[in-house]
Design goal:
about 85% helix, membrane, 10 helices, about 260 residues, MetI-like fold, cell membrane, MetI-like, mainly alpha
Length: about 260
Amino acid sequence: MTPSNLRLSGRTSRLWSALGVLLLLAGWQLTAQYLGPMLMATPLQALRALGVLVNSDSFWRNANASLARIAIGVGAGCAIGFALGVLAGHNAKLRGLLEPLRWLLMAMPPVVVVVLAMLWFGLGSSMVIFITVLMMAPGMYVNTVKGMLLVDRSLIEMTHVYRFGAWMRLRHLYLPALAAPLTAALLIATCGGVRLVVMAEVLGAESGAGFALANARSTFDSGELYAWVILILALVAALEFVLLQPLQRRLTQWQEPSHA
């Protein structure tokens, strides 16, 4: 595909995405009018509540608590999953040893993990971070192992012939080969991590966006509730479009065909 066709395709995709956003807003407006203000705020009411919310004393305390939990939980979970995946990709025995644990964590419903973590850690950041790490690591592990197993064996043998150390093999062979699956897994993990943190905060935390959502729900303040929903969606969009997509393009730019 030529560069001009790529640009045209990109513009077309953005136009359809904008149309999709308008349809979502229209559906939100119609549903809110049908359900009434107590059950669902309209987009305009949510935006008005958002202005009040960001100027409140509790907003930054809750927002900072959630952001810290997301950063620590998602970062630690992805790092653990990647490290174990690299090791398991090299060692079939370790891969077999970790397989039952991987299956258990991926099959267990998150709400069960939340209940157990509340019993073990009580309410607060430790519980939320533990849940996020436990749920994020298996996805990154699976993608890393699958990517490691798909690396060309002749290239691996070549690195041994030229006496590449472990760091050089990781940097010059495995990381480029794993760039596409890992960035996709990181995108899924980040978005899933935000949802997990908010869910854990709703069920058992004393601060954070989920805690504020639960309070808004208990007082039937639908304006504030949907204002927090907008903020959470904005955070996910910022992480994807400002951080993760540029990172993905940078890591996979060597795979793009060059145009004369």
